[in-house]
Write a structure and sequence with these properties.
binds zinc ion; 32% strand
Length: 85
């Protein structure tokens, strides 16, 4: 995704307050996958992510964050099996 596309995406997203709609938009722009996991960084357009587990119980992962490898922004938050918007 190029800078112009990112800019357009951000200006549209700033105008909507509907989570369902913004999720559809993120998917349309290729920012997230069908399961809601990050695909493209919404800040720099990077495509590599690293995950950091923030909480686990008895070895099972409960919470994790997904960071962009390029700009280090948080691009995803996962809780007990699902990516949060
Ligand atoms: Zn980034």
């Amino acid at each position: 995704m190029n800078r112009l596309r990112l800019y357009i995406y951000r200006s549209i997203l700033n105008k909507i307050n509907d989570t369902g709609l913004s999720l559809k938009l993120e998917y349309r722009f290729g920012l997230i996958d069908t399961d809601g996991s990050p695909k493209t960084c919404r800040f720099c357009g990077g495509k590599d992510f690293r995950e950091q587990i923030t909480d686990r119980i008895e070895g099972m992962v409960l919470e994790k964050n997904s960071f962009c490898s390029k700009c280090n922004s948080i691009c995803g938050y996962w809780v007990t099996g699902a990516w949060m918007p």
